[in-house]
């Protein structure tokens, strides 16, 4: 096995391209190519060919033939293509069907001209600073392309792009920046968990220098959204920039310098309730960067759980033209829970008064909508949890609210518990679960559940039910809550569904509103959730 080193074509600077060569036709090789300068598609391809040929025993003759005729041997082409393609296939799953391996390799050369590549077992591992940005998600063949439901797609896309940029400006900060820990560094600093209140001086914990003996030690600290201070040094130390954004500390004694570092404090200079700063810590050629979270603490929202289920849970429902089913639901609730509060949101055209102990009946404008009713009902809840049920459900002996509360209390990170859906590009998968809840093997973490669920009131109110979805909607609540709601489904708690009965034509007209309402919802999802397709 031989190892070859070459210099970049036309330069004396080594590119450190080498591989352990058994046989060019063999796949047993490893290589490391850093800073390989690849230009536009054609010149980049040609340069890579020359570099491969220079490492091949006797490759000079083939190189000469290539320069004269533009031809290479099949073995050389195979190695060259495999070098570029292997890891991209591994990371992206497969080569697009419309591309051959070689065309795909050309695309890689063009897209990543300065990638630092480490190859082993015919794969490529790009260093973190040179990883390609994640590409756009791919829609399945069966997916609904939401853009197709738009009449003025270009104008809507421009408005959506503007809104999305504003959304990112509100929700992202420098705390999203990737930070990489330097190797063999003498610098010690906090890498996680350093939080400060806005415009409040706070000591930076853990700052220290661990360096070998020197005649003098000089360190720098620099921030962008605040100022740095330390104690006034005694003899044998100097400090410059005290109370400024760049602080320099110098001493001939490492112990003295570390004492100064122990008293460095940070104060943000601009009031913001939740943002961040990046602090740079430097010594000679070493540098470390660590995040500073600037956040105004929020007071907690606590609910008094009381002594029984009636002070812990409120049952909520929305009804529309189905009073017979609603009364059956209420009767079944009272069979098992006589004193629990029930909140009803009603947007029927002709309303009937619903009375009874611990029942609140709210009349809405006629036909106002499904999610508007959910919002109204949830807004009136004063308990820690609410149980959502449809107006045609029926309580059974398996509808155990106490068990649901027990599970929620044992898993305080949970926000919703019920029964299932998964959001993605958007991709829905029914009967799909992530993992079981600790201590409750019959419960699994999911992305969404059906219309029977127990929700943490404050969490559901933060997501809210979009009132623009006024007819057929449910999973849209979990789409909005994806990434903020922790959801679980439990198979041992269930609720019954009443038999389907004949309804007047007016109800079914609203229950199945037709294609126009469907297209309106698709356009809404396209804009609001920044989606391009929906895979049902």
Number of domains: 3
What is the helix tally? Answer: 13
CATH H level, superfamily name of the largest domain: Spore Coat Polysaccharide Biosynthesis Protein SpsA, Chain A
- List unreliable stretches of 5+ residues: 1-43, 106-131, 420-424
**How helical, in percent, are the residues?**
25-40%
CATH architectural label of the largest domain: Alpha-Beta Complex
Structural shape: extended
Hey, roughly how much beta strand do the residues contain? 15-25%
* Rg over C-alpha atoms, rounded to the nearest angstrom: 32 Å
Please tell me the overall pLDDT. Answer: 76
CATH class of the largest domain: Alpha Beta
Oligomer: single chain
- Helix and strand content put the structural class at alpha+beta
End-to-end separation: 54 Å
Give the beta-strand count: 30
User: Main β-sheet, in a few words?
Assistant: 9 strands, mixed
Please give the order of strands in the largest beta sheet: 21-20-19-22-27-24-28-26-25
At CATH level 3, the topology of the largest domain is Spore Coat Polysaccharide Biosynthesis Protein SpsA, Chain A
How does this structure look, described?
The protein is an alpha+beta fold and 536 residues long. The protein has three domains: 129 residues, no CATH class; 109 residues, Immunoglobulin-like (Sandwich), CATH 2.60.40; 220 residues, Spore Coat Polysaccharide Biosynthesis Protein SpsA, Chain A. The chain contains 13 helices and 30 strands. It has a nine-stranded mixed beta sheet. Helix 3 packs across helix 4. The protein is extended, with a radius of gyration of 32 Å. The N terminus is likely disordered.
């Amino acid at each position: 096995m031989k190892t070859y080193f070459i210099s970049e074509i036309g330069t004396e600077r080594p590119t450190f391209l080498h591989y352990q060569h058994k046989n060019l036709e063999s796949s047993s090789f490893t290589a490391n190519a850093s800073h390989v300068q690849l230009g536009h598609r054609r010149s980049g391809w040609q340069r890579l060919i020359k570099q491969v040929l220079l490492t091949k025993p006797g490759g000079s003759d083939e190189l000469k033939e290539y320069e004269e005729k533009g031809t290479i041997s099949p073995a050389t082409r195979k190695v060259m293509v495999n070098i570029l393609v292997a890891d991209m296939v591994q990371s992206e799953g497969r080569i697009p069907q419309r591309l051959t391996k070689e065309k795909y390799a050309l695309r890689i050369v063009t897209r990543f001209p300065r990638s630092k590549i480490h190859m082993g077992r015919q794969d490529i591992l790009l260093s973190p600073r040179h990883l390609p940005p994640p590409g756009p998600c791919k829609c399945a063949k069966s997916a609904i392309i939401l853009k197709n439901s738009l009449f003025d797609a270009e104008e809507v896309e421009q408005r959506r792009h503007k809104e999305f940029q504003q959304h990112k400006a509100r929700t992202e900060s420098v705390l999203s920046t990737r930070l990489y820990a330097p190797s063999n560094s003498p610098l010690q600093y906090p890498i996680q968990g350093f939080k400060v209140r806005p415009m409040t001086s706070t000591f930076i914990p853990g700052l220290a220098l661990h360096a070998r003996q020197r005649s003098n030690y000089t360190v720098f600290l620099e921030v962008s959204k605040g100022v740095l201070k330390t104690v006034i040094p005694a003899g044998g130390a100097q400090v410059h920039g005290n109370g400024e954004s760049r602080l320099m500390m110098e001493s001939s004694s490492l112990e003295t310098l570390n004492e100064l570092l122990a008293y460095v404090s940070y104060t943000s200079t601009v009031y913001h309730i939740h943002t961040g700063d990046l602090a740079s810590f430097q010594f000679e050629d070493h540098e470390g960067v660590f995040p500073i979270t600037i956040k105004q603490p929020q007071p907690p929202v606590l609910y008094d759980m009381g002594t029984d289920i009636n002070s812990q849970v409120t049952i909520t429902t929305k009804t529309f033209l189905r009073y017979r089913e609603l009364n059956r639901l209420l009767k079944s609730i009272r069979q098992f829970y006589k004193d629990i509060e029930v909140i009803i949101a009603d947007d029927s055209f002709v309303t009937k008064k619903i009375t009874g102990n611990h029942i609140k009946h709210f009349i809405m404008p006629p036909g106002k909508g499904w999610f508007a009713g959910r919002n109204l009902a949830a807004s009136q809840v004063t308990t820690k949890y609410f149980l959502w049920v449809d107006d045609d459900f029926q309580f059974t002996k398996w509808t155990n609210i106490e068990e649901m509360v027990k599970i929620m209390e044992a898993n305080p990170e949970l926000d919703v518990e019920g029964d299932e859906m998964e959001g993605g590009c958007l991709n829905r998968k029914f009967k799909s679960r992530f993992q079981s809840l600790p201590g409750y093997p019959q419960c699994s973490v999911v992305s969404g559940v059906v219309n029977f669920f127990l929700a943490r009131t404050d969490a559901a109110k933060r997501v809210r039910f979009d009132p623009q979805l006024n007819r057929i909607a449910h999973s849209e609540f979990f789409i909005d809550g994806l990434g903020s709601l922790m959801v679980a489904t439990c198979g041992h708690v269930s609720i019954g569904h009443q038999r389907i009965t004949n309804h007047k034509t007016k109800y079914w007209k609203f229950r199945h509103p037709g294609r126009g309402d469907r297209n309106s919802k698709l356009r809404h999802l396209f804009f609001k959730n920044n989606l391009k397709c929906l895979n049902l």
